[in-house]
Write a structure and sequence with these properties.
Layout (H helix, E strand, L loop, with lengths): L6 H15 L27 H14 L2 H14 L4 H16 L3 H14 L6 H13 L10 H16 L4 H30 L3 H14 L6 H15 L2 H14 L4 H11 L12 H9 L1
């Protein structure tokens, strides 16, 4: 399975691995059977921290991410409250993420955050949680609860750890997540528009204008507002939507479409400064 590590995630994981294995160097390269993974419950026996770490690292080298996560979970189970268990928890979260076992990655990261909120590595736990939610974002035609959760988690990373590589990567993903959420609103709004539910459509397009003005969806949202308001006979709002669209995206096909709609009643784009559309754009600017 190909890995999806960002530069920041890769660097942090390498650091964790080095810290975790720093005291285990004497065990590398041995073929001692006591270091092998227990094959089943009947063969189970308590192992040292060093033995578990070595087995886990072998799993990583083999690309067996699920096995790796299980191994590092054993550290906390067999040797709780140790610094080794704390580090193993983060490595387990990362391995679960790599295995696409997102619920396990999120649960482990949450557990780490709860138990070690003041740790130097806690930013990594927040980031793993955020990226695990982000990679579960689904098509705009489906439920977007994971997308909303991802946005909150990514914003948490940026707000809590603003000067980190995690924050820089999270900022990029916030933009993509907002675009996705705006796309969902647009899809529903277009559906309402085709059914003649103009009020329902306007409410959806308004959400895009109010909350997602930095996304590429905004030009279409203004054109659709022009269309919906025109269909309701609310000429002033239709003209305002077209005027704001023309001022911000004068060369777009969406503006030309809005302009052509107004021509049906010999209207031209004209901004009403008291309209919510005009006020929404002034707030952002």
């Amino acid at each position: 399975m190909p890995t999806r590590m960002s530069v920041s995630m890769r660097a942090a994981f390498a650091g964790l691995a080095l810290m975790g294995l720093g005291g285990c160097g004497s065990l590398f390269g041995t073929d001692d059977e006591t270091n092998n993974v227990n094959k089943d419950a009947a063969n189970y026996q308590e192992r040292s921290v060093e033995a578990i770490y070595v087995d886990g690292w072998r799993m990583i080298n083999m690309g067996n991410w699920e096995g790796c996560a299980q191994q590092f979970n054993e550290v906390d189970r067999q040797h709780p409250y140790s610094v080794w268990a704390r580090r193993a928890m983060l490595i387990s979260a990362f391995c679960s993420y790599q295995a696409n076992a997102y619920p396990a990655a999120i649960a482990t990261a949450d557990n780490y955050i709860s138990l070690h909120p003041g740790s130097r590595e806690v930013a990594y736990a927040f980031y793993i949680k955020a990226i695990s939610l982000y990679e579960q974002i689904v098509d705009v035609n489906r439920d977007q609860s994971n997308t909303e959760g991802a946005l909150v988690a990514l914003q948490d990373v940026v707000q809590r750890f603003p000067d980190t590589e995690y924050a820089r990567d999270a900022t990029l993903k916030i933009d993509l997540t907002n675009d996705h959420l705006a796309g969902k609103e647009m899809a529903v709004g277009r559906y309402y528009l085709t059914r003649g539910d103009y009020i329902g459509a306007i409410n959806r397009f308004r959400t895009v204008v109010d909350q997602y003005q930095t996304t590429p969806q905004i030009a279409e949202a203004l054109q659709r507002l022009t269309e919906a308001y025109y269909s309701l006979g609310l000429n002033s709002e239709a003209q305002t939507a077209a005027a704001v669209l023309g001022r911000n995206y004068p060369g777009s096909g969406w503006y030309q479409s809005a302009y052509n709609i107004l021509r049906g009643r010999n209207l031209k784009p004209m901004e009403d400064r008291g309209s919510w559309i005009s006020q929404a754009f002034r707030r952002v600017l």
